[in-house]
Design a protein that fits this description.
- The protein contains 12 helices and 14 strands.
- The protein is globular.
- The chain has a 7-stranded parallel β-sheet with strand order 3-2-1-4-5-7-6, sandwiched between helices. It has a 7-stranded mixed β-sheet with strand order 9-10-8-11-14-13-12.
- Helix content is 33%, strand content 22%.
- By secondary structure, the protein is an alpha/beta fold.
- The protein binds NADPH dihydro-nicotinamide-adenine-dinucleotide phosphate and N-acetyl-L-glutamyl 5-phosphate (X2W).
- The site of NADPH dihydro-nicotinamide-adenine-dinucleotide phosphate has 33 residues, from helix 1, strand 2, helix 4 and helix 12.
Length: 334
């Protein structure tokens, strides 16, 4: 199958391109940037020298003629673009009959009101919100396999939902909101330069208090209230979440362990037992690492992912695998 990547010069797009070229059943048909991009005409390997010899394809401008080329050459279109750009681009490719994998948050929520509140724009294609399958691969594989539009899950939500859905499914969560403290590396903010993500400026600080767009995403797909606080840390890639859960009265450690068995056979989830998840353990790896410790009715769950792999490009490839009827981990593991 032939894959086109829009936004290929960005961090998640380049990561996805490197996965696609190594995948046994995919071909990278073309890589695009915006029509005005300063990078158009450059090779992807000019921007990412670690991929010299692997990603020597040129970055093409997404102008009118590009749409004809994409119509005739692509099976899958991956949007590695900003939310609003993805919202605008997806319908055009869907009309061509392409299967679209959107790595942005443009189609993850069901309510237009949430787009206004958390994304700051009025959604122009609300009819597609119902059609989009939420791309949280371990939990929605049938819908992902069938849908024409897959809204690949957000980075922080991927870690939080895999950590919490087993407990919710088993009915173990008490009524209180779950508290999620998360730290992300700087690639989470994308490649474009800004003072807030400048190497000399970043230390460790919270942001997005009470109003980060991943709060409604986690709540919608968990079915439980959360208090989510992201932090930006001074390392390149990876997300670590420490999650404080109040369990229902008398929930035993055996019940908690039993609840997590739902993930035990998933090839891209590692249940660590007594070990502590870390950024080091997941950076450049396709996995979600999960562990927990319990004291009475208090449970602390820890989850770690690489934001560019399981949090973006890795999970997008996992969704493509599902669409092709392949095992989840094809092209991702060993
Ligand atoms: N970074 C991460 O950890 C994660 C990112 N995501 C999501 O993935 C998407 C991409 O993120 P990320 O890779 O970090 O972003 P980057 O800012 O690193 O890259 C954005 C890419 O989009 C291109 N682009 C911008 N405008 C247009 C346009 N109008 N048409 C075509 N291409 C365009 C940019 O190139 P140019 O401007 O030169 O045209 C660049 O290639 C975002 O929606 C983000 O929320 C999801 C999970 C994790
Ligand atoms: C460190 C940092 O800035 N992270 C980004 C989240 C990463 C991302 O791009 O978000 P999606 O997964 O929703 O696409 C943020 O907080 O906005």
């Amino acid at each position: 199958m032939k894959v086109v990547i829009i936004g290929a010069s960005g961090y998640s797009g380049a990561e996805l391109a490197s996965l696609v070229v190594k995948h046994p059943q995919l071909t990278l048909a073309a890589c695009y940037v915006s029509e005005q991009s300063l990078d158009k005409g450059k090779l992807l390997s000019d921007l990412y020298p670690e991929h010299v010899g692997l990603l020597d394809s040129p970055l093409l401008p997404l102008g009118e003629s590009a749409y004809n080329d994409i119509e005739s050459s692509a099976d899958f279109v991956c949007l590695c673009t900003d939310h609003k750009v993805s919202v605008d681009l997806a319908p055009r490719f869907l009309k061509m009959g392409k299967k679209v994998f959107d790595l942005s948050g443009g189609y993850r929520l069901s309510s237009n009101e949430d787009y206004q509140t958390y994304y700051g724009f009025e959604h122009q294609h609300t009819e597609l919100l119902k059609q989009a399958a939420y791309g949280l691969a371990e939990w929605n594989s049938d819908a992902i396999a069938k849908a024409q539009l897959v809204a690949v899950a957000g980075c922080y939500p991927t870690a939080a939902l895999n950590a919490l859905k087993p407990l919710q499914l088993a009915g173990l969560l008490a009524e209180q909101p779950v508290i999620i403290n998360a730290v992300s590396g700087v690639t989470g903010a994308g490649r474009k330069a800004s003072v807030g993500t400048h190497f000399c400026e970043v230390s460790l600080a919270p942001y997005g208090l009470f109003n980060h767009r991943h709060s409604p995403e986690i709540e919608q797909h968990l079915g439980h209230k959360v208090l989510f606080t992201p932090h930006l840390g001074n390392f390149p890639r990876g997300i670590l979440e420490t999650i404080y859960v109040q369990l229902k009265v008398d929930v035993t450690p055996e019940q908690v362990a039993q609840a997590y068995q739902v993930l035990a056979d998933e090839p891209l989830i590692r249940l660590l037992g007594n070990k502590i998840p870390s950024i080091k353990g997941v950076a450049k790896q396709p996995f979600v690492d999960i562990a927990w410790q319990q004291q009475g009715s208090q449970l602390i769950v820890m989850a770690a992912i690489d934001n560019l792999l399981k949090g973006a490009a890795g999970q997008a490839l996992q969704c493509i695998n599902l669409a092709m009827g392949l095992p989840h981990s094809t092209g991702l593991k060993g």
